Amino acid sequence: MPPPLTKTNANGVRYRRQTTVDQLIDEVAMLDRAALLSRFSITNRHDPIYLPSEVLLHAIRATRQDNRDSHFEALFRILLARVESLSRNAISTSQYRNVDEIRAEIASRFATMIAQDRTQGGDRLDIFEVVFDKALAALRVDVLRKLGPERLRTEPIDDANTGEPTAAVERAAEAFLGQSREKFDDPAFRSDLVAAIDHLPNDEKTVIGLMLKGIPIDGKEPGAVTIAKLLGCTEKTVRNRRDRAIFKLRKALAGEYAS
Amino acid sequence: MTSQTSPAQEDVLLAFSCENDASPATLAEYVRRYPGYAGALADLAVELMIVPLREDACCSPQDATVDRAWETFRSSATSLETKSLGAAGSLIAALPPAEFRALAKRIGVNTLFLVQLRDRIIDATTIPRRFVELLARELSSTVSAVMDDLARPPMVAASERFKSDQKPGADKRIAFADAIGNSDLDDEQQQKLRAFMD
Questions:
Q1: Which of A229, B35, B106, B143 has its CA 20 to 30 A from that of A74?
Q2: Structure confidence by residue, pLDDT tens digits, A97-122
Q3: ipTM above 0.85, yes or no
Q4: Are B82 and A93 in contact (CB under 8 A)?
Q5: Does the beta carbon of A135 lie under 8 angstroms from any beta carbon of chain B?
């Protein structure tokens, strides 16, 4: 078994890798360098011998114990290529003017974390050995909230400035969300929907995402979790964002679920 | 960064990304604890839902972005190494008194324990690596520089230099575990230090 992670959560409990990751780390420990690089170079997640990024990161951190710099560089480059791939998927050129700057900042932040880990040790990268893609999403959100304001203006829609949403818009929104939840298990629909949601401006994307998670826009109970409270804005603002988002999603997915 | 300051947004987001239960209740709990990061946490909650559903893009390890990241890595690592080389041999001893006491507080020891580290009375081979890593971070140095520093011969007080016919140093070293028990540390400090030995 690979050595346990040392970082603890807020309750003092140590983070643990997924069992499959531990098993794969043990499995690849038997490979020579060339075979290891070959395995890590596989990018298709559906390939039966694909190795997840958690395993790759562990291999990189393990090279702290030796002096094989060329091997380290090769592993580093494969991992950073994966980081860049995830950034390209998540940060669309249709959303931000400065996509290159944002993606470069994410890669730079991650590269600096590896440099610190390699020279100073520490447990900062432990979470990436547990849930790499999700931890990278956390890094991405942090960067986007600091560098992301140069968002492109999106095309105006019919109801953008009408104030209170109309009953027809309300009904359309509810139908859209209800239908999407039912269809969410259909891979083709899911892929189209995710791509369409990814192209929404961030404030609209967050509202739609939170609604898909089942969080209500508002609520009477003092302790209730609502989108308006989470985002610190009024119910009316949330509804306007939702309506703008749904208008765009319906347009992007025209024909699939017009109601 | 120290544990006494409020966590940075990045740290809070990383912790949230690792939650098994990404329910609205978990999100609400994080927002209650870190109200200043509510918007970022909401964004991340949505991202975490979408991440597994995205199609894969492709990028080569020889891509220009990867080249730039590699250069960032090299310059960061070199900068950290250079910084520690500049202070080699005097990492803890070079600290002014106030910073010395502040360091003791940050790493959870008393000044007596830190003096024993500074004077290399604690046998470096018995010091857990994670504790060395903590020292390296708090000293803005590197693990290798701190290890080199701690492994040098013990310092001998001027008043003791001429009192013995024997060569001073090696026989005075004590194990990390013994230093924990003999340094008037309180129970919590001892417990935390022993945890580094797990």
A1: B143
A2: 788 888 988 999 999 999 999 988 88
A3: no
A4: no
A5: yes
